[in-house]
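Quick one:
INPUT:
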């Protein structure tokens, strides 16, 4: 059994779409198609050393993920299920057959635009610390005041905090001083998956309601619940994607539910980088994990992953 893992926007890197073209003609055709659908040259955005805004980050990671997926499908590899972290849920929706590619690309473009219009803030990954201890630390650092929330529950000891930039900085300073933790800023502008983004969610819902969603052919696994949703309707998908904008990503629960159903599942990260496969960690998930993009030589990595899956 195979489960594809589709990454979020933290996997963005300059030149990732051009790099993915080395995977072959099917991947290059995806990029040509995306440029045509959006009416702009994504190659120009891809060549910039830093993204102009969140819209370009989201579109870039989503298109690159579809390029990797096209190469896997061209190699005859399929997965019984999939999971997508945050933005990656849109690639998951493509995999489970809930919406056509052009509509998904349009939604990702609109999602990024709405995020850029939202309140500003910061997101920081924190590890290793369990959720209960992190919640206590946030309260103590802010003297019981709000402003910072847990936006991602990624593993038993890795979380993302988000909110007002100054408040996030105070929490980070406290964590470094009192717990000697590792932290990494993953987003400087957009505090997604927090309550402050609720107005963004309801603006974005208008785009979701116009999309021609259909019942998924495979199990839908929404981030916002962390639980598989069998027999999901179009209305269910719209509701989950709306809540997804302003509620935490339950990635840990999503992965653990998948392993509970399929104890021998192999996880394959599909898209730029290998953040998700590294996140699994042997102390948490012992299942086999692979990625289509590890190291400098993308084509060699991709071929090694395809070979490993065929030999399994």
């Amino acid at each position: 059994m195979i489960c594809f893992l589709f990454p979020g926007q933290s996997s963005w890197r300059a030149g990732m779409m051009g790099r993915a073209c080395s995977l072959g003609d099917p991947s290059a055709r995806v990029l040509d198609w995306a440029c045509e659908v959006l009416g702009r040259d994504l190659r120009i955005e891809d060549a910039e050393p830093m993204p102009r805004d969140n819209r370009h980050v989201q579109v870039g990671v989503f298109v690159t993920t579809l390029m990797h997926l096209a190469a896997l499908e061209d190699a005859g590899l399929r997965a019984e299920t999939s999971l997508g972290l945050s933005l990656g849920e849109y690639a998951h929706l493509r995999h489970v057959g809930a919406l056509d590619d052009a509509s998904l690309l349009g939604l990702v473009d609109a999602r990024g635009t709405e995020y850029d219009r939202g309140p500003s803030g910061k997101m920081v990954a924190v590890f290793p610390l369990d959720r209960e201890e992190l919640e206590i630390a946030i309260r103590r650092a802010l003297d019981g005041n709000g402003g910072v929330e847990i936006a991602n529950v990624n593993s038993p000891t890795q979380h993302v905090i988000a909110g007002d930039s100054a408040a996030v900085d105070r929490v980070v300073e406290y964590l470094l001083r009192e717990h000697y933790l590792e932290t990494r800023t993953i987003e400087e502008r957009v505090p997604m998956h927090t309550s402050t983004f609720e107005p963004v969610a309801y603006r974005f819902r208008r785009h979701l309601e116009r999309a021609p969603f259909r019942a998924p052919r495979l199990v839908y696994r929404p981030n916002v619940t962390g639980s598989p949703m069998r027999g999901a309707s179009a209305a269910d998908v719209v509701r989950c994607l709306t809540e997804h904008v302003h509620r935490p990503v339950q990635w840990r629960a999503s992965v653990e539910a998948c392993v509970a159903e399929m104890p021998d599942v192999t996880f394959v990260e599909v898209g730029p980088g290998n953040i998700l496969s590294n996140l699994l960690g042997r102390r948490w998930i012992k299942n086999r994990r692979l990625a289509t993009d590890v190291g400098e030589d993308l084509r060699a990595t991709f071929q090694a992953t395809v070979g490993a899956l065929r030999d399994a």
